[in-house]
Write a structure and sequence with these properties.
Distance between the termini: 66 Å
Number of helices: 11
Largest sheet: 5 strands, mixed
Shape: rod-shaped
Enzyme class: transferase
EC number: 2.7.13.3
Main location: membrane
Strand order of the largest sheet: 2-1-5-4-3
Number of strands: 12
Catalytic activity: ATP + protein L-histidine = ADP + protein N-phospho-L-histidine
Helix content: 55-70%
Number of domains: 3
GO molecular function: ATP binding; protein histidine kinase activity
Radius of gyration: 50 Å
Length: 478
């Protein structure tokens, strides 16, 4: 039951804090901190006030002592003594001068006192403790005060009623309290106003903008406009504006990709049906006796079969992952066969595709996936040279490879126009790295993913002219 009560009280505190808000909590904290500062100031102040009050009484007693010293035979009438004691506010005054001790009183000296205050030796710690006792303890016994003398007087001693001192200290404390409340209120108000204008209001603006932007992140008009501020709030506004811009662009691009994926799915369905029909027609060519047909038909059948598999598994980029590679050690040159036939894509350019790979070199990879990568790289090179021509010499694309230990490096180089700088920044990102007009930038992204699935890397080398892509594949262990 006790636990439930504690949880309920904590929940109530949290709800109250939520209703107060950030600015209200800052105001309360400011008031509390100012009051703490005032308390730290009040303690030595009230001790100093008590010391000053007692010092004033000692000074008045010294004047009374001078009157007593000037009187004939150092004796005064009872009426004068009463007036002197009343003016000082003391029950008795004693002083010591020249080894003699004189006493001014009308009533017998009390047998004991509540406290003796020696102003000649009292430090701050003693003064603070004495002030605390005077305020909190109501003692009927009188107070004995000892102070410095003057004009040949060694010291002055008083016996006082502590009630007037206590009343005076209470009045002083009341004034300090009222002044502290006024100061804390004014200070808290000014701090609240400054914090409200410089922090709370900008933070609320940030929160409102985040909520508004979240309703429609693709609407760039909802992006926050950074203010002129150069402090942390201004930096947060600038960072938020940059993040909202990037996020809005990304969401719009992903929406376009989703729309594109739906369109591609429809095209893929129809294209797969057409390729299947073409494959059925090509199957009949295998029975034609013409030698040329017999030489071309098997490769045409294999190409159509690969195209059907591509339609079933490719262009799923963004919707599903590529299939897991079926890696095996296989000769490289048969994999290059399709890539070497791509020179016909630009017949007017008379492009030569050179196979410079060593005879018998094998690679540990999925043959179909590696063939797709090489076909993509060679096709891009042929199309670039066909559009812009060669940068130097006869148009050519060269494929080289070498093995170093368990690593095979394949280079696809051309002497075409090279890649523009804008395409290099996002070269292997889908729909970002198109290097020619009309390109989608999807081919290199898929090629990089296929090489990565086979445990390798695809990168672009820095060359003086043309372009050179580097494929690095490492054999599996064991």
């Amino acid at each position: 039951m006790q636990w439930g009560d504690d949880a309920a009280s904590q929940g109530g505190i949290r709800r109250l804090a939520g209703r107060i808000g950030l600015s209200g909590r800052l105001l309360l904290l400011t008031v509390v901190f100012v009051l703490i500062a005032e308390v730290l100031i009040y303690v030595p102040s009230v001790a100093s006030y008590r010391r000053s009050w007692l010092s004033d009484r000692v000074a008045a007693a010294q004047v009374a002592a001078l009157v007593l010293d000037a009187a004939p035979q150092q004796r005064v009438s009872d009426d004068l003594a009463r007036r002197l004691l009343t003016g000082v506010g003391a029950q008795a005054i004693a002083l010591k001068a020249g080894g003699a001790r004189r006493l001014l009183n009308l009533t017998p000296m009390p047998p004991e006192v509540a406290e003796t205050v020696d102003l000649r030796e009292a430090g701050w710690i003693d003064s603070i403790g004495g002030a605390w006792r005077t305020l909190t303890e109501v003692n009927p016994l009188p107070l004995r005060v000892v102070g410095h003398g003057m004009d040949g007087v060694d010291f002055v001693e008083l016996v006082l009623d502590p009630a007037p001192l206590r009343n005076a200290m209470i009045a002083f404390s009341r004034r300090i309290l009222l002044a502290s409340l006024a100061i804390s209120g004014i200070t808290a108000g000014l701090v609240f106003l400054v914090l409200q204008l410089s922090i709370v209001r900008p933070v609320r603006r940030l929160a409102r903008n985040i909520a508004t932007f979240a309703e429609d992140p693709e609407d760039l008009s909802r992006r926050i406009n950074p203010s002129w501020r150069s402090d942390e709030i201004g930096a947060a506004e600038t960072a938020l504006a940059r993040m909202e811009t990037i996020l809005s662009d990304e969401l719009r691009q992903k929406r376009r990709l989703a729309d594109l994926g739906l369109s591609v799915s429809k095209i893929n369905h129809e294209l797969r049906n057409l390729l299947t029909t073409a494959q059925l027609l090509v199957d009949r060519l295998e029975h034609v006796a013409d030698p040329g047909v017999q030489r071309v038909a098997p490769r045409l059948v294999a190409t159509l079969g690969r195209a059907i598999r591509y339609c079933e598994g490719t262009l799923a980029y963004g919707r599903a992952a590529e299939r897991a590679p079926e890696r095996r050690v296989t000769p490289l040159r048969p994999i290059l066969r399709d890539a070497l036939d791509l020179a016909g894509l630009a017949p007017g350019a008379a492009i030569t595709i050179e196979d410079r790979t060593p005879e018998g070199l094998s690679v540990d990879a999925d043959p179909d996936q590696l063939s797709r990568v090489l076909v993509n790289l060679v096709r891009n090179a042929v199309q670039a040279i066909g559009l812009a021509g060669a940068s130097e010499g006869a148009p050519r694309v060269a494929i080289e490879a070498e093995r170093t230990g368990s690593t095979v490096t394949i280079l696809v180089a051309d002497n075409g126009p090279g890649l523009p700088e804008r395409a290099r920044t996002h070269l292997f990102e889908a729909f970002q790295g198109a290097g020619r007009s009309g390109g989608t930038g999807l081919g290199l992204a898929i090629a990089a993913e296929l090489v990565r699935l086979n445990g390798g890397t695809l990168s672009l080398d820095e060359t003086g002219s043309g372009a050179r892509f580097r494929i690095v594949l490492t054999d599996r262990e064991g």
